[in-house]
Amino acid sequence: MTISPRNGLAGCVLVLGALCTSGTATAGADDGPPLHQVTYTVSTDHPLGVGIYYRDVDPPTWADYSHDPYRYSPRDDIHLEPGAPWVHQAMLADPGRWAMVTVTAAGPPTEVATTLRCQMSVDGVEVDHAEGPRGALCSMRNW
Predict the structure, then answer these.
(1) Which domain of life is it from (predicted)?
(2) Domains of the chain by residue range
């Protein structure tokens, strides 16, 4: 096969056109920062009623969060059983700033010593874990 200057120019135009259109197909004006998969896991060693707060979305600004933190931090009131952890996945743009899960025992202390645990991973990598007799907080930042 011989390539003439005309065929070479036409081929270059086709390749450049394909490159230009493929770049615009994936990058739009509405694309935000990349999202990270945050996995929250809460467990216990004895059956217990608990309240779990977790960050499900990135607040637009710190002021928005401060004005109404519960808008961005849903609460699940559940009964935890050993061997059956509560697991929730969220997609966050800035997990270093916003990712957080906290678990608190519901009701008065019981006669049975219980340990509540939380664990948090971002994109499959554990970033924090904690435990306590009445509650635990997992976060990448200090609250």
Answers:
(1) Bacteria
(2) 36-139
Report how far residue 12's alpha carbon sits from residue 68's, in angstroms, rounded to the nearest whole number.
Answer: 55
Structure tokens at 22: 């493929």
| Alpha-helix runs per DSSP H in 45-89 | 62-67, 69-72
80-115 pLDDT, tens digit each: 999 999 999 999 999 999 999 999 999 887 777 899
pLDDT of res. 30: 60
Cα separation of 46 and 59, whole Å? 34
Interior/surface letters 53-74, b for 16+ CB within 10 angstroms, e for the rest: bbbbebbeeeeebeeeeeebbe
User: Do the beta carbons of residue 48 and residue 99 sit within 8 Å?
Assistant: no
Q: Can you spell out the DSSP letters for 81-127?
A: BTTB-EEEEEEES-HHHH-EEEEEE-SSPPSS---EEEEEEETTEEE
